[in-house]
């Protein structure tokens, strides 16, 4: 084990925490129990990645007990639950 106090690990976008935007929209609609208002564009934005998967091998080597505690659905549910009251407020909906 070669842990370092200055080590930096990228833990986003691993195979076990990766879905497409359309899959994320569908999951958000299920969580919110309503259809979301969105548009699909054929144009990629500058800097967008088509597919991105982080390599967790460094953190898994340095921290053998490492595991992701939060999956995609639990993160999206938390985002929804924290914000839902603001999102349904009349002043937010009229903007």
Report what the structure shows.
This protein has one domain. It is built from 4 helices and no strands. The chain starts with 20 loop residues before the first helix and ends with a helix. The mean pLDDT is 84.
Structure at a glance:
With 95 residues, the chain is mainly α.
What is the averaged pLDDT score?
Answer: 84
Counted up, domains total: 1
Q: Give the percentage of residues in beta strands.
A: under 5%
Largest beta-sheet details: none
Number of helical elements: 4
Describe the global form: extended
- Uncertain runs: none
Question: What Rg do the Cα atoms give?
Answer: 18 Å
Oligomerization state = single chain
How many E-type strands?
Answer: 0
Question: What structural category characterises the helix and strand content?
Answer: mainly alpha
Element-by-element helix/strand order = HHHH
State the distance separating the first and last CA atoms.
53 Å
Helix content range: 40-55%
Topology:
Blueprint: H1 21-32, H2 57-62, H3 72-88, H4 90-93
Helix pairs in contact: 1-3
What distinguishing features does this structure have?
41% helix; mainly alpha; 0% strand; 95 residues; single chain; 4 helices
């Amino acid at each position: 084990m070669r842990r370092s106090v200055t080590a930096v690990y990228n833990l986003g976008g691993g195979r076990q925490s990766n879905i497409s935007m359309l899959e994320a929209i569908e999951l958000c609609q299920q969580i919110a129990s309503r259809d979301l208002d969105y548009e699909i564009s054929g144009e990629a934005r500058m800097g967008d990645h088509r597919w991105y998967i982080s390599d967790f091998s460094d953190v898994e080597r340095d921290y053998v007990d490492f595991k992701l505690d939060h999956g995609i659905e639990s993160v999206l549910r938390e985002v929804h639950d924290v914000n839902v009251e603001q999102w349904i407020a009349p002043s937010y909906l009229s903007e």
